[in-house]
Design brief:
Layout lengths: L3 E5 L3 E7 L2 E8 L1 H9 L5 E9 L4 H9 L3 E8 L5 E7 L6 E7 L19 E4 L4 H9 L7 E5 L2 H6 L1 H8 L4 E5 H8 L4 H11 L3 E5 L5 E5 L2 E5 L13 H16 L4 H18 L6 H5 L2 H15 L7
Helix pairs in contact: 1-8, 3-5, 6-7, 8-9, 9-11
The structure holds adenosine monophosphate (AMP).
The site of adenosine monophosphate (AMP) has 17 residues, from strand 2 and helix 8.
């Protein structure tokens, strides 16, 4: 029997503008990217989310074809799917959110189907902290690991509820700007220390094209991002990372710090595929051979011999 991953997060339509082009309506959402990324591993993956009647059947099929269990996805009759619009600046490291329309997410009460209530790992993707809490409350057994991804929107508007989720998770994955916003600390080491005190034993701080840091007790692991020739659209990089990280840990069933280091490399590789094309395209299309090549590139990038006297 395969290990089980439960993903909670948004399914969305996005409008994206980058220096290389623009799209008005493209499949997006945290749960979409996370599950597409995680489905690359040997595991059973289910989603809990909500969409409107406008959500196209071709997009449901895309996820189903990859073996993703959609029985926890509610389709609201007459409702409109969550919509997000963002614009990337020239360095592609910074983006401005132009619009967030919660739509069907506004009144969403998640209902986890019985057969998805005992996952090995739960990945709480970007979504309202109240929904994340409700989902956690419906689990029948305590998962091996609870992983949380969130963003500035929820920090600004839903801080008390977000605090209650953070208290309950083992791993939090956020970017450097968000870590600073959450703690008021500029130093990422101090920020991670503050976040440890809020609850999570493991803190991942993503730094875009500069890689990611994993903090646990007094240990720190530092992973690079792969220097890429083409970065087309960074949307979903964080979620693809989360899917790779939680997917690898679910497949292996090993949640040690050492295995988390490998999980971070898998997550970074997934993110590197996503950013090379618009939306989810490359995450769906890349070949297993290119994954092996990319992992090799990560290894070569970080291995060196040094003599210390
Ligand atoms: P990322 O680039 O990894 O941060 O994720 C981008 C995806 O997150 C997009 O596809 C959006 O639909 C989704 N998204 C944007 N804002 C939010 C939000 N406030 N809550 C949940 N998902 C969001």
């Amino acid at each position: 029997m395969k290990n089980k991953l439960l993903v909670v997060g948004t399914m969305a339509y996005d409008a994206i503008e980058t220096p290389f082009g623009q799209v008005d309506k493209i499949l997006g959402g945290a749960a979409t990217y996370i599950s597409l990324s995680a489905s690359r591993f040997s595991l059973d993956c289910g989603i809990v989310s909500v969409v409107g009647e406008d959500f196209e059947s071709q997009h449901l099929s895309l996820l189903k074809e990859r073996g993703i269990d959609l029985s926890g996805v509610e389709i609201v009759a007459g409702g409109k799917t969550f919509f997000w619009s963002g614009k990337y600046h020239n360095d592609l490291n910074t983006r401005t959110t132009l619009d967030t329309q919660l739509n069907v997410l506004q009144d969403f009460n998640p209902k986890i189907p019985e057969h998805l209530k005992s996952p090995d790992i739960i990945m709480l993707g970007n979504l309202s902290p109240d929904v994340q809490l409700q989902a956690l409350g419906q689990l029948k057994t305590k998962p091996k690991l609870v992983v949380l991804d969130t963003m500035n929107f929820w920090m600004e508007h839903f801080r008390p509820a977000l605090g209650r989720v953070i208290e309950k998770v083992d791993v939090i994955s956020i970017n450097d700007e968000e870590a600073r916003q959450l703690t008021g600390e500029y130093s990422l080491v101090k920020a991670a220390d503050q976040i440890h005190k809020m609850g999570p034993k493991y803190v991942i701080i993503k730094k875009g094209e500069h890689g990611a840091l994993l903090f646990h007790d007094n240990e720190i692991f530092c992973a690079p991002a792969l220097p890429l020739e083409e970065v087309f659209d960074p949307t979903g990089a964080g979620d693809s990372f989360a899917g790779g990280f939680s997917g690898y840990l679910t497949q292996t069933g090993d949640i040690s710090f050492d295995n988390m280091k490998s999980a971070i490399i898998y997550g970074s590789a997934m993110a590197s595929f996503t950013v090379e094309k618009f939306g989810t395209k490359n995450l769906v299309d890349f070949s297993p051979t290119s994954m092996a090549e990319r992992l090799k590139a990560f290894k070569e990038l970080t291995t060196f011999e040094i003599e210390i006297e």
